[in-house]
Amino acid sequence: MNPIDEAISLLRQRRRVLVFTGAGISTESGIPDFRGPDGVWTRVDPAEFTIDRYLANAETRSRSWQMRRDSGALLAEPNPGHHAITRLWKAGRVHGLVTQNIDGLHQRAGMPDDAVIELHGNANRTICVACATRSDTLDVLARLDEHDDPPCPECGGILKVDVVFFGEMLPEAATRRAFDLAASADAVVAVGSTLSVYPAAHVPLDVVRAGNPLVIINRGETEFDSLASVRIDAGAGEALGAIADALTAG
Ligand code: ZN
Q1: What confidence tens digit (pLDDT) does each residue in 112-142 have?
Q2: N or C, fewer C-beta in 10 Å, the chain?
Q3: Annotated catalytic residue, options 82, 106, 120, 202
Q4: How far apart are CA 53 and CA 51, in angstroms?
Q5: What are the backbone dihedrals phi and psi of residue 220, each rounded to the nearest 5 degrees, phi first?
Q6: Residue 13 three-state SS
Q7: Cβ pair 65, 144 in contact under 8 A
Q8: Ligand 1 (single-atom ion) residues, CB below 5 Å
Q9: DSSP class of residue 215?
Q10: Active site residue 147
């Protein structure tokens, strides 16, 4: 049996499937991953992205806004992988969706906001570190022509995209929900993640340690390959599309 068919027959018998996604599901939308051969960290020093440096240095903030505008990531569209997860969710086949991604593409593919647990935040939202006013990141980027480091329109404070920087804690409520879901799941599908970033990778690991099967969909190796019941080395769109077709039919 090919691995996609194996995954289908395994997941068909499960009622509380947790889906865990990483950067690899969004590469088909043109968003580069971080750790791959063409990943962001081959061009940019992660040390630039610590919260301490960001808050202390207007130059760093300016470069950060510039990169965000140039990357075009906020204008990306969801791909068949995102849409397949939405189809599975609408058919009642997804117990919960936890993502490491900050691109908001699951919501853009039709997942309700409150059904997507974002462990690392969402770059579409910007927040003032002084007064907590929220704004749309695209509106902040639109002000870059007049201001290298746009201040908060309400209080003049420092603005920051609502994502977890190096040196920051994961958002507490999202983290708690993710681990609650993991504790009640009866299978986990990890998509487009090398499963090497902690604490996020503890979410699928908890499901596996409770004796439940793990399905991995990823191009290339992951840290949990030896734990997987089924390992699908393919793009998310192809693999999830076939799984959603089978599990939502009839
Ligand atoms: Zn403010």
Answers
A1: 999 999 999 999 999 999 999 999 999 999 9
A2: C
A3: 120
A4: 6
A5: 95, 175
A6: coil
A7: yes
A8: 128, 130-131, 133, 152, 154-155, 157
A9: E
A10: no
| Structure-block tokens of residue 45 | 């020093």
Report residue 99 as tokens: 């993502």
* Distance from Cα 159 to the centre of ligand 1, integer Å: 7
DSSP conformational letter for 75 = G
* pTM of structure: 0.93
Q: Which tens digits make up the pLDDT trace of 148-196?
A: 999 999 999 999 999 999 889 999 999 999 999 999 999 999 999 999 9
**Separation CA 120–CA 171 (nearest Å):** 7
> Which three-class secondary structure string do you get for 150-214?
CECCCCCCEEEEEECCECCCCCHHHHHHHHHHHHHCCEEEEECCCCCCCCCCHHHHHHHHCCCCE
Asked if residues 136 and 124 have their Cβ atoms less than 8 Å apart, the reply is: yes
Whole-number Å distance between alpha carbons of 46 and 49: 5
Q: Which residues make beta-bridge pairs with 135?
A: 126
Distance 135 CA to ligand 1 centre (A): 10
Q: What number of H helices and E strands is found in the chain?
A: 9, 9
Residues 6+ apart with CB under 8 A from 10: 187, 213, 215, 229, 230
